């Protein structure tokens, strides 16, 4: 488990204050709320009281809104980074860890969940039959993470809007559903201000370094297209995502494409059984990459998994990557 500095993560909620309390939810227990989720109108008959979430970013969206009292548990592998320094660590202390794997129907039923908040490839999956439609048949409503919405371009491709818009959409929707609109609006306002501060200092025009996001994979790399969080994390930090033209969120490409686009910097996603250092060593030693600028100049920057999926950690990730890319721009 990697250590995440508390100060860096606190940046993501600095203007509202680490550990800040939220306004009390309004008396809307019996009032239906209709939201637009993945392009569909979805009506929730009541405010959920036993929410179950899948994965770290989704879980922390609930915690950042102060909604741990509305949760019955979460599923999350234990390789997604250290949480002890987080401003919303109290949520992890309070809410039950249901599984170190993905959610299952059994987890959800055992927890007596009245809402499942997950995403496609963040819990929801056709091959295992764990889908919103399957849960609906059990009488359990769902909310789908907007970053993960299927976009119809292929059967599995995801992403329907810019990644930060997806983050703001989910915070706004959750704020409405749980009656904490003011808290959601404050988070969005503060996130936008933090990002604007980084943007103001970012390299401009031809000085913007090109960046390749490396998640995993040796035969074929798994990376980020323009609909996953790294697209705007890179862009707002002052870089250019070399896979911007890929109309998907998380997907595979060929190494020949990476070589042809010659990124100035590689951002490594730190999670899983292969450590960030092992990924770094692979990139630096992989013969086809030897003439890529990022490899020749050993410009490899590491961000945590939770920084790079839709989550309240995204603004902090933008700030840290922005500081690094300014040094890259100055060295070119």
From TrEMBL:
Alphabetized, the UniProt keywords read: Signal
Signal peptide per UniProt: 1-20
- Which residues does the UniProt record annotate as the domain Fe/B12 periplasmic-binding? 50-332
SUPFAM superfamilies, per the entry: Helical backbone' metal receptor (SSF53807)
| A Pfam family the protein falls into | Peripla_BP_2
- Give the transmembrane region(s): none
Q: Does the entry feature the keyword Signal, yes or no?
A: yes
Q: Which family does it belong to?
A: Belongs to the bacterial solute-binding protein 8 family.
Task: Please report the name of this protein according to its UniProt entry.
Answer: ABC transporter substrate-binding protein
**What is the organism field in this record?**
Streptomyces crystallinus
